[in-house]
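Entry 14. Structure prediction run on the chain below.
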Amino acid sequence: MNFDWTDMTASMHKVGMSLVSLLAASVLATQPADAAGIKRIDSGSTEIFVAFDGLVEGASTFTLAGPDRIAIDVRGGQAGRGGRASGIVKAVRQGQFDPQTARIVFDLKQPAIVTGGQFSADGKSLRLKLKPVSGVAGTGVRKNFLPPAQFRAEPPKNTYSVKVPLGRPKDSVKLPKISGPDDPERPLVVIDAGHGGHDPGAISPHGNQREKDVTLAIAKAIRDRLVDSGRVRVALTRETDKFLVLEERYGIARRLGADLFISLHADAAGNEEASGATVYTLSEVASDREASKLAARENKSNIINGVNLGGANREVSSILIDLTQRETMNVSADFAKLLHREGRRKMPFRNNPHRFASFVVLKAPDTPSVLFEAGYLTNRNDAAFLSSLDGRARVADGVATAIETHFARKLAQR
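Output returned:
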């Protein structure tokens, strides 16, 4: 799949089908001959205009945060090239989301929502009204627009797609055992203890605690707490002091069919006063400089003596981030908020506890994932808390309660 970018000077839980299949389908499937092409896009601060060279079935819009974007899915459409960005729209992209749907993504300078819109009388253009807002509003909620009935393309009666694995998780690592109820219908959470083996992670100046040991102890405490309650199944990516490359960590979760993936860390900070827990979810653009630096540092875990042991491909990773199914991203963000709500009763959190960054370990396209920084080993109090039996028990109880509440909500929504 290719995306066309334009800038200001130019005139760009589990889901039913994984993104890798959707991407593969968009690359390999033959585009229907009667799909209407997108021939023109104009965007600004108050309006988006899209013109087609034929009839389409309809369109839907939704907003995304972190970074701020508006997306349009055009059913019965074929992606074209380019588009004009101006006003609060800083870039426009187009791509074929699946054989029957073209997706247009508008990168924004500030949050905005679609307040309304309609197709033209002949069904060959769509005009949408934009409204800048001060904060995130309506994220993930679709607005649907249909052309006049007499100028609406009929959906194809026969479609097909070809699926191939893209970024297939490595299978050289033996899958871990699953603890908890012997019931495959129970939700499964995979907990990843960060670092390990030759990679110690952060080392505390207040007792020489190593991050790899602290995270493993916390991971085991969370597992034991979840097993005791018997509500969910749980697996650890590692139960010993061994090294895993980043792709193997989330690859284990995908191979097990996990419903949730949590990567545990205990970071170091230049300021010894920095303390408290933080929850990160995936974004190609970091929410702040600190998040960006942390992601860059953690993502180097694969590199040994200048050799990258992982298989990350920057172009594919960028596509995965941008086209990751909306539901997976939203579930991850919802769980991050829930983890803060439940966890703060048991442990200290930082101000602005939910942040965004491009962590490799969070790039499973079909598994809701968070990276949980339980605290800072460079802070005397955090190091003591995370290394104590009582501290680990409190962290485990907060995380486990959030996990159980998360899946209880999912069950209630069925």
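Residues 185 and 316 are 32 Å apart (CA to CA).
Filed with the rest of this week's runs.
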